[in-house]
Each structure stands twice: as structure tokens, then as C-alpha cells.
Amino acid sequence: MCGIVGYIGPRNAQDVLLSGLAKLEYRGYDSAGIAIYDHGEVKLAKTVGRLAALEAKLNGATISGNLGIGHTRWATHGKPSDENAHPHAGCASDFAVVHNGIIENYLALKEKLLASGHHFASETDTEIIAHLLEELWTGDLFSTVLKVLEEIRGAYALAIMTKNDPGKLVAVRKHSPLVIGLGDGENFCASDIPAILEYTRDVLIMEEGEIALITESSVECFDLKGNSIEKKVFQVTWDPVAAEKGGYDHYMLKEIHEQPRAVRDTMSGRLSDDGRKVMLPELKWPEGYAQAVDRIHIVAAGTSYHAGLVGKTVIESLTRIPVDVEIASEYRYRDPIVTDHTLMVVISQSGETADTLAALRNSKERGIRVLAITNVVGSSVAREANDVIVTWAGPEISVASTKAYTTQLIALYLLALYLGQERGKLDDVFVNGFLKDMKELPDKLDEILESSPWIEQTAKDFAVWDDAFFLGRGIDYAVALEGALKYKEISYIHAEAYPAGELKHGTLALIVEGVPVIALVTEDSLYEKSVSNIKEVKARGAHVLAIAWAGDEEIGKSVDRVLYIPRTRTALAPVLMVAPLQLLAYYASVARGNDVDKPRNLAKSVTVE
Ligand code: M6R
Known about the structure:
Blueprint: E1 3-8, H1 13-24, E2 31-38, E3 41-48, H2 51-58, E4 67-73, E5 95-103, H3 106-115, H4 127-135, H5 141-151, E6 154-162, E7 169-174, E8 179-182, E9 187-190, E10 202-205, E11 210-214, E12 219-223, E13 228-229, E14 234-235, H6 240-244, H7 251-257, H8 259-267, H9 289-292, E15 295-300, H10 302-319, E16 323-327, H11 328-331, E17 342-348, H12 354-365, E18 369-374, H13 380-384, E19 387-390, H14 403-422, H15 428-439, H16 441-449, H17 452-462, E20 467-472, H18 475-491, E21 494-499, E22 516-521, H19 527-539, E23 543-549, E24 561-565, H20 573-591
Parallel strand pairs: 15-16, 15-17, 17-18, 18-19, 20-21, 20-22, 22-23, 23-24
Antiparallel strand pairs: 1-4, 1-9, 2-3, 2-4, 5-6, 6-7, 7-11, 8-9, 8-10, 10-14, 11-12, 12-13
Helix pairs in contact: 3-4, 8-14, 8-16, 10-14, 10-18, 16-20, 17-20, 18-20
Bound molecules: 5-amino-5-deoxy-1-O-phosphono-D-mannitol.
């Protein structure tokens, strides 16, 4: 996730770009840059570091010009560095491109471009666009961009300019957000409304596969074939603070709603074109390593630990490699039994959690190979692990982790499939079916998020209680743990998760008339047993909300409320099931009047022991 901004009009472009980027830093902040059309040249200023570093580099100087684009980066392809910072120019620096997203086929395109004599200055996927613009130049920016779009695959929001056709800015949206701001004799584009709110409240919200041709006096919109389209002007009425949260009341709610995009991005570029193989080129494992691994230790904290529990179930079932999942603050002080071929997988959204980092360091000292799953490219965990799978959730601001969890699950599914296929345990047909189901998850998540009003009402009803119980069996239990953590973390209501079959060994004593019980019922092989456990709590007066598969009419007979989620295979159910649990926690917290994004006593990144 990165932030892009563009401007054309009478103002000094540099000022507009820098103020816009300041509002987009929440989308990424490992490097920043601008390109401005200045006296017949495209001039670039860019640097690793936050926007403040770019301002320091400019040192009060102004690149004067009235057309420009800017970028604040959250590294995906290529480390944070001056070279990898956007904007990117081609060989002759005639063009400038900023990009938010991932170009999936960039390696194949890069090889072709190298073969035809192009020189690359960065490791990014984005730079190929600047070279393609040079290669396919028609004499007109808009028609050249259309030709470039025919070549690239993936997710992108782009802003593009050139000195060869000045007075124009082209902006494109496919799977990454983009808005166009309409001014009086000036126009803007940006990843998000706050970047331009200082200048205009009239915006066009770009939809999938739409392109805008922007001059200072006009904005025309087209589809990817170049057919003109009409768009409605949206009047922004939010105040600037609400606008930074995309119109949502809290970052947590915004981040919950970002999950379909985050899940899609984390899969992007990691599936073969025919959808039959998982590709993880970021794993620099020695020849034969995948086959030799005989044990996996997953180590993490909090929500990341809960993702690891789902990972265990899936990795064991797809590869038959034994997996232990451990809490980092325990593992770091243990003397774990490891073999020469134990793989350690650390999971950390921030990549800075002190216990997780310490566990990683201990393992490396023991000679264990460490793979990190993290959301922050330049984090300590990412730098110190042998291999890294980055979850492309984008910056997570709310203390309560949401989109990081779902993308960690995606990374673990990909790892399980990769190990399974490399070890000859899974055939193409199985992998193809699994990946097909994974690709449907974003749309299914969108469907679930539409149930928000129903969940809000349920949360209000439950929030009057000082306890809540989350039940599940098998993989449902792993998700129940995450549901309970989310609930207690932000609503401050006592919440416990139990394996449903364990209730009668003590916890059943806590069930009283009316107490909310949230029962997760997607583990098909244990369905009847789960229903029996639900009956046990119902018989003691609990008020049961079941989260079950769409079409499961039976469950309605045993519970008080049901939330149905679209069917997928059981292994993938956690991605879908967690969304209503996040919303339940969110609305319970709102109902109690809590500070949702900054719950008491907690910090986003726990860098102390
Ligand atoms: O950054 P990490 O994933 O290492 O953080 C681990 C936990 O501190 C974190 O998941 C915490 O449990 C969340 N705030 C829960 O929502």
C-alpha cells in the first residue's frame, strides 16, 4: 500500500504534492518523492525515509512547475532506498510514474525490456511502466498509456506525466484506490480524499478499470478500451479528521473493510498464470530444503500467534510436517527440541515485537533457518530473518489487529501449499482447486461486511453483559481465540474462548441465563459434536449466536441468532469467520463508549519485554 498524488493547475505543484503526501503517509512512509514538469524537463526529487527526509533533501528549494506527481512508499518490490523510491523515470527521463499496487508480470516484461536495451535504475515492479511508455510511445500520452495497460497485469493506481506531451496527467485505477479532485482551473488525483480536501470537495471516485485524462481545465474518464464514460461528482461533506479514516468513524473499521483488498494483494504475484502452482520467489532456500524440513516451529504473539494456530492445522494437513505453535515470550526462554532441519516461522505484523525478535535471534544462534511473515518490509524481524514473506496489508494503525491477521492467514496458506507441492504431496488439481477457492475470498468477505448493521445490533445487545464466551472445535477453535482476544481488547468485556468439547470440564459452571455465547460452526467433520456442545450451553440458559455456513438451516433450530457466511473449504473458513467477530468486537466497543483505536493499557507495537 502506497500513496499517490497528482496536480495540474496554476499553483506551485511542489506545495500541493508535499501537503497531499503528508495526508497519505498513513499508507506508507519508507520513502517519498515528487516529479515536476519544470521548463521543458521532468525533474525528480526522491529519497528513502519519511516525507520529512524529502523536505530536508529539498532544503527549502522549489522545483518550479504547475504539473507534478508524488508518492509515499510502503515497500513491496525492492527494499526502501533512494533508487526504489518513486517516481520512476525511463532511460531518457522523459516520463514519470507513481504507482500503488503490484505489477504481477513485471519480471517477464523486465526481461524483454532489458533485451531491447533498456537500463533499469531500481528493483521495483513500477519502473517497467516508465520503460514501456518509452517503448510504446505514440506521440500522445493517453493513447500510449492505453497500450501500456494492455501489457501489464496486477493491481494498480497510477499517475503518469511526460515532458513529450505536457499539460496532461493520466491517472488509472485497477484494484487500488484513486480519486480525482475537481478544482476551478486546476485538477488533482490521489489515493485518498484527505490528500486533496484542502483544495476541493468535488471528487470523482474512480472505479475498477477506469482512466482519467486530466488537464488544468478538464477531466475526461474512460474505460480501459478508451471508451468515454460519464461519472457522477461526489461532494465530500466529512470533516478532515473523518476523511483520513476514509469516512469511517475509526481506523479499525476502515481496516476491517480493507481486508478484501489486502487479501487480494497478498496473493497477487504468488500464483502461477495457470493457477496451478504457488510461487514464492522470495524464499531463498537451498536446493532440496523444502523436501528436507522435518519440523516447523511457529512463534508469535497475540493475534499473530492465533494466525499461527490456523497455520499449524493447514500445514500439517497439506504437508504432514509436524508443526508446533508457541507464544514468543515463552519460547524465547525454553530450550526447544530442534532438529537439523527444523524451520522456524516467526509471524509479526510490526516486525518489532521484542519477544518475537528475541526468539528469532535465539533460533538463529542455534543455527535454525528462520522464515518471517511480516507486514513491514524494513522491520527488525524482516532484516534479521533468513527469508521473508511480506503480507501486503498496508500500514495497520488501529491497535486491534484485523487486516494483518487475514493476510497472515493467506501467507500461511501459500506456504503450506508451496511446501506440499515441492514435497510432491499435492498434485496440480488439488492446488488449482485450493487457489481457486482462495481467489474467491475477497468477494465473499465483501458479502460478509454487508451484514454490518445486523452485527451492530447484536453487539449492542451483547455489550450489556460483562462476559462473553467463544466456542469452536478444530480450526473453529483457533478463530474463537482470535474472536475473544479482539472482543476483550477493545470492549473491555471479559471474553474467553474454549474448545467446545472442553466446556463440561469446568467452564460450563460459568454459563448463566442470558450470557452471550458465540459458537463457530464451520468444521464440517465435527458438526454434530459442535451442535451437541451448543445444546449443552443452551440448556443452561446461554444466548447463542452461531456463525455457520450459508444453507445450514438446521443450526437455526438450536440457537438464538445465526450469522451465515458464504461457503468455502473449511481450511479457508477462518478468513471469512473472523470478519464478523472483528465487527462484533468493534461495535461492542463503540456501544461501551471506548476509544476503539487506542484501547487502554495497550500499544500497537510491543517493543519491550
Ligand atoms: O506486531 P505483532 O504481530 O508482532 O504484534 C503481536 C501482538 O502484539 C498483536 O497481535 C496484538 O495481540 C494485537 N494488538 C491484537 O489485536
